[in-house]
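Give me structure tokens for this 343-residue protein.
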Amino acid sequence: MKKLSGGSIYLFMLFLLVGCGGSGARISSPALTIVSLAPPDGTLGASYAGTQGFNFAAKGGTPPYAWSWSAATGSTLPPGLSLSAGAGVVSGIPTTIGLYNITVSVKDSGAPATQAGMPYAINVIAPQTALEISSWQLPIGTLGADYGGVAGYSFSASGGTAPYTWGWVATAGSSLPQGLALSNIGVISGIPTTEGSYSFTVTVSDSESPPAQSSTNYTIWVLQAGEVAITSGTLPTGHVGLRYGGLHSVDQWQFYGFPLGAAGGTPPYSWTWAAAPGSSLPPGLHISSLLLGGCSAGACVRVDVVDGTPTAAGTYDVVVTVTDSATPSAQGSTNYTIVIKNP
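Here you go.
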């Protein structure tokens, strides 16, 4: 058999390639596509998507890519933000609240280059306010009756990120009100079983990660039906020649004196006091009902206080009594000690 020369072998191999359809053509790349999910919301005045910004991504085509964006019809690009051409990163600080509809485009480095586009929306929202509990003084509980009615009492909060989760814990020296429970959605319900005053701390947590929290101290009084009780704290120390009780405010009105408070019964209340056996009332002090803001159209604010200017130093034991407006009336009394010092 005759051996083939080198040139003959080359021609033979070329013949095989052509006969088998081998053309030497470059295998084509996958189609260029933007693969990013929706960009996050932006917050007015805060770095968009953190200090690193938001990175658009693509696949296919021939890297590296060149990025651009344009506003959709009827919209604008988000003021304060920019898109880097080389990395496809949206960054900056949003300056205007609104919803911005955009089209993001990417071009590859092929010859000829290919291009892909995708519509997106960037929502710029107002800064989030701090989480806080907005509920005020809690209603009185009555032995044997549903607290807050059949639906219970619902706490409220503002700020942070809803939904909220609630919890409570008794303060030192107190306990949670027996017979009542606080649900994780912030509703106190149940039937009080024991009379008394219960102090506790309520905490709300939002849905951020990690969650923000806010706490407030509260007191629930549980009384017999029709009973009235004094809820004022300890009477403060006074000084000879100085206005007693300090400066306080209700709404926009300011007043001097120590505010008296009561719970239960039928408001409005009337107040009296008397010296305990073996003592006397503190000279210069008295119980007053202050009417703040005038009384036109019955719009005045009434505040009952211990006020005045002490004139003699000493320790004074007194009994303070509150009477409600029911017929027959109910009363509650508490013993207090007032210490008056020299300046």
